[in-house]
User: Fold this.
Amino acid sequence: MTTRIQPQPGIMDIELYVGGKAHVDGVSNTVKLSSNENPWGASEKAKQAYRSVAGNLHVYPSSDHSELRAAIAKVHDLDAERIICSNGSDELISFLCQAYAGAGDEVLFTEHGFLMYKLCAQAAGATPVAVREIERTTDVDALLEAANENTKLVFIANPNNPTGTMISEEEVARLAEGLPEQALLVLDGAYAEYVEGFDGHASLVEQRENIFMTRTFSKIYGLGGLRVGWGYGPLEVIQTLQRVRGPFNVNAGGLAAAEAAMLDVDYTAKCQRLNAEWRDYLHAELGALGIACDPSMGNFVLARFGSEAEADAADQALSSEGLIVRAVKSYGLPDCLRITVGKGADCKRVVAVLSVFKEGWEE
Assistant:
C-alpha cells in the first residue's frame, strides 16, 4: 500500500550524512582519528562548568544565551548583539538555508567543501552548486563566475575541511566584493582557532553587510558531544536567523561548558600549540614516506595516495591496528584519507603503520 503522506519534493533525494567511523569490528583499544575531535579533550574549567548545572536539569536553559554571547564578545572583541548561538554550527548552516534559500535559488560551495552545505540547501528546496577548486583550494574566480541572479548563499570553509587549505583575507574580500548584491557570503570558521593570530575573518564581517561567519565549540574547545556553535554577522541577518531559531536550542550544560571553554584562553592556546607540533610532524613524516599532503591549517592532514585502491588498502592497514581515519570518497577525493591530529604517541603509530604498509604495497 502506498501512503498519501509524502515529503516535500526533493527531500528523499538527500543523501544521508555519514560521519567518521567510531569503532572497528573485532579490534579493541581503538584510536579515533576520523572526526577532527580534540584529542586532549575539553578544559577542566569547561568540565567543571558542565557538572555545575546538574542540580538544575529541570530548569529550561537561557533562551537568549546572553552569558555565552558576552564571553564570546569579550574574547574576540565583538558586538554581542551581532552574535547568535546554535546547536553546533551545522544548525546555523541549516538556519541560513531555511531563511535565505528556496525553490529556484542557488547555493554555492566549493567542490571539496563540507557536505552539510549541499544537504541543507537541498532540505530548503534550493539548488546546490558545487564549484571547482584549484589544487584542492578555493578558487575565487570560479565562484565569481558561477554566481548569478539566482545565487542566494555562498559557503566557503577557511581553513577548508577536508583539505586543510586556506585562502588569504584579500581573496575572501575580493569574493565578497564581487558577488551579486543579493548573495550572502558565509565563512565557515570551524578550524579558525588552529590558525595562530587568525580572527576567522571577523574584521571583514565588521566591514561588510554581505558576510556571515560561523564558528563551533566542537573542534579546539573539545565540546563536540554537547553541540554548541555560534555565528557573527550583520544585525539584519542575526535578527532574521533569530526568527527561525528555536527558543531553547542550546542546552544548559552546553551553554555553561562553552562559556568556560571560551574564557579559558590559556588552555585553547595550549591545544593550538600541541596541534601545530603534531600536525607538522605528520606532514613531514608522511611526506618522507612518499605520501603527499597539502599544508594544512586545521587539526588534520589530507593524505593523498597513488590511487583509490592504495587509499583503501592503507585505510584497512590502519584500521587493523585500531587507528580509525576518514575515507573521503564522498568529498570527491577517493584517493585520499583524512587523518585527525592525535596525541603524539598516536601520530607516531600512524606513521609506523603506514611505513610498513608502503614497504609492502604493490598496485
About this structure: The chain has a mean pLDDT of 96. The first strand starts at residue 31 and ends at 32. The CA atoms of residues 281 and 347 lie 8 Å apart.
